Queue: 3 jobs
Job 1
Amino acid sequence: MGQPASATVARVRRHLQLALGCVWLLDAALQFQPYMFSRSFSTDTLAPTAQGNPGWVATPINWATALVSHHPVPWNFAFAITQLGLALGLFWPRTVRATLIASIPWSLGVWWVGEGLGGNLTGAASPLTGAPGAVVIYALLAVLLWPRPSPSRCRSVADASPLGRAGSRVLWLVLWGGLAYEMLLPANRSATGTLASIAGMARGEPAWLATIDRRTVAALGPHSAATAAVVAGILAATALAVCGPTTLKRAWLLLAMVFAATVWVVGEDLGGLLTGTATDPNSGPLLVLLAAAYWPVRLSRRENALHGLPARPALPVLPAGAIR
């Protein structure tokens, strides 16, 4: 029998579960937008995700697009209610486990049909515009935030997950290493690839947000390949963050959060939330939550003693009159 996960880790995990529930609630609200109940949702949002994908990926997307386009109202209502149910399930502690289990196949299905596997097989996916796809991160978080006893001392929510310390590190390495690899794809290293995708995100956005996109493209235009190389280097270093000492780990995890937040504004345009056609906030906020699951927590003195860790030394008590 392993010792229960520390109270500190359990508390942080619960906060992250509630945060994930809030994201699902946002998704449900977005799915209730008028646009989603029209045929445009299937023809302009679902159908384009099949483009550039292998046939075995595109065929189910095209089938789902045709199905939804014939009856957009009942299908979209079902989508919205499902996501609302996932949000409410995470808010109530007794249903957290069942909700996390249900969210995994739902997330993977939406990642396939709704995002075309994030475009990762098209050769044109970019970490600056949403790769690896927001919805797959919901599934990863469902695993990392699973409430369970820990068979060993744990210093982060990810360590206490079913993947354990080693498995969660592999997951982080694969995810961020994969993003670094995608950043070096020919489509992203070309003179116009990444910049064109950022410029394209400006369509339909408020003027102030579109201006940020245009100025970013103008600033990076002469240095597109160099920008891709620098971003790839940052992503590769971030992939190794979980393997370093605690202090270095916190610094790189913080950098990962800053990167995700910056890209969410510049490359992802706040996930298109202001356009009336967004289905989720895109990958930026989800990557921040993911990094938070790996953040090394500070255990209490009692928890340190329980795990046989040295407690932080107390300040010496000086005798009366020692300080003059």
Job 2
Amino acid sequence: MTEPTVLSVSDLNQSARRLLEERFNLVWIRGEISNFARPRSGHWYFTLKDDAAQVRCAMFVNRNRLCRMQPSDGGEVLLRGRVSLYENRGEFQVIVEHMEAAGEGALRAAYEALKARLAAEGLFAEERKRTLPAYPRHVAVVSSPSGAALRDVLSVISRRFPLLKVTLLPISVQGADAEPQILEALNRVPALAPDLVLLTRGGGSLEDLFTFNSEAVARAIARCPVPTVSAVGHETDFTIADFAADLRAPTPSAAAELITPDATALNQDLSRWRQRLTAASTNRLELLRHRHAALRSRLVNPRDRLLQLMQRADDLETRLRLGLGNSLERTRDRFASLQRGLRRQRPEPRIAALTATVTALRGRAQQRMATQLAQNAERLSALARTLEAVSPLQALARGFAIVTGAGPAGAITNAAQAAPGDAIQVNFHDGALSARVEGRAPLPEQWRTLNDS
């Protein structure tokens, strides 16, 4: 028979803890708090119960410091945690990591739905975020006049940049009147013409911050004509107003730090610039002083300069007179020389010589022309006699005739040029006869003998 495995109490509790933690990782539990205890260690221990059962819970200090509510007996809460076992006492318990009031569940769901819808519209887009002015002169603070948030903001502004004008637009930060008062305050901003708007309040539960998760407030912030800063709640609190604003600050004090320049740093910068300006001015003045001294050393007394100019004018006048006198004398000498040359080159003798030459040439030309004309006339007479001797008219006068065709053809010089029946014309020295060829016969003997001779 196999002996049973015997476990120690520690082994049993350890195994049970592991099984519970493996089976139940993170769970959400809703119930009522009782027996709440907070020892000096800072951890929270309490019992969570409902009508039929209860369970022990522990929320350690590293987690409960992030909790935005203060638990107390009788409060109904919603927990998120890990199921475990406290081995030392064998007690079943829940290690709580997150706690919120039970009513916050519906509020958180509505918050997430509105946040997603407005983000989809582009209301939270980074490209529409405006840059805060580096040196604002006027800020409108929308906050409760009696809240710690306003005191923190004014304290930081007074310390960092007391020149900043602050206009308070008082509102209720929670309750039924909060939302309409916030909307009215934001509507007053254009008339005040501030450089920026700060919307702020202290921390609280999700129900306390409900007004700052309003859609109307978010849209009013987006419509604001000047940059807006949201500082609502503690560092871990995020509201719809934070996303709609141009800048979200984790706390009211941090918001005041973000919107104001550091007056101390500005004074230090001004001191440095003043020193640099003084040094630059000194160097510039010294340079101008040296330039002035150099220019002054080059400056001549006007009276002395006038005397020099007068002396220079007299010198130039003397040189001008001398130059004009010498030039006039040279001009006179040149004129006399030209006049003498002109006398030597008188045209009358040359004209007389040329006239005689022209007369002689004219006589010679006339004589030569007469001789040439006589020679040409003799040659013309000889040519006329020769032409007359060979003229066919002389042959016609001696009894000869010229036979031509009836038309415009030329002279017929042999019998072969005319055929029987052709019309011909016989031309004599005193007229012409029209005839027709009857026939062709050999040349008569007497004419042949004459032709042969």
Job 3
Amino acid sequence: MANDLNQTPSANRVHIGFFGLRNAGKSSLVNAVTGQALSIVSDVKGTTTDPVQKAMELLPLGPVVILDTPGLDDEGELGALRVRRAYQALNKTDVAVLVVDGTLGLQAEDRAILERIRAKEIPYLVVYNKGDLKSHPVTEDWEMAVSAKDGSGVHELKERIAVLAKQQGPEKKILGDLIAPGDLVVLVTPIDGSAPKGRMILPQVQTIRDVMDAHAACIVTQPEELPGQLSGLKTPPKLVVTDSQAFGTVKNMVPETIPLTSFSILFARYKGILATAVRGAARLRQLRDGDRVLISEGCTHHRQCNDIGTVKLPGWLENFSGKKPDFSFTSGTEFPEDLSPFSLVVHCGGCMLNEREMVYRMKNAEDQNIPFTNYGTAIAHMNGILKRSLEVFPDLAAELE
């Protein structure tokens, strides 16, 4: 279990969000559920001022991310910002726990977020805390009573959270469903100025693990070594997967008879956004001078002088469209709710974001009729190789006809 905890990326963990009013006992309940002093507890209202996020293992569920959020009834200008942060946490919440002061019952703010939870179709529980005192009666199957103070009901709460989490559906594969035991996959991973020193980036590592879980084998190589690797094989590989930045070079090295795609395209499917990303890439030719393009990354990292998001991608988009768009950049949790000023959103592969948050960002764009694509899909399209990159997904390839 410890090995699983150490190696499971946060983006692949079930995100469990705790919401409620100030002094409803959210933080006390989080500590009781986790068995850790994860959140600061105080009788002073508004002790939790920002969402607290912790990757850990929660039995009987396994690796999870616990989110403790600010009170929904916070006041003042800063309070309004904290409430907004709490609502934003819903975008990455797989299971929501609405913690209610059992001596008071559901308040207006509780009902407001409960409505939002239901609208987002997030599995949820309403938990009446302070069950050691006079508590609100439990009448619905999505309600229960607990006491963070004496621990009553906490074990049942964890069991019920696990049941809700398992409703997320079967575990998805990055490429494991595209290959069979004994197949060979070639992974092209450039080592350049943007590569992290002494290690590989997360999508590459996760893809290697997915290949191994499928009882297949892989060769990991840099672009310059790829021709020699391919010519030395007795039989062609089942699939070649390349870093998107190397598409322009790799496409000429891999014979048309060998399927070719990218890490970013595989992760777009893994995160549930590929079909939309394909449609969004088709709009790149329609960019005009002055159009605002949002380039968004899910992680925060030190940007290199030749950074893909802020340097390479804007240059490629300008060359491909022949226009001069106006580029804006966001990273981490900074994704605007109002996308109306933009003509296009180009997102990273989202390896640091869970599926629910990636789908939220995509749907946010779709709801506002803003084309949405991702790095790898856009780069493949600009290199004239998107159709070939989607041949492993026939239904999507048909959309390009």
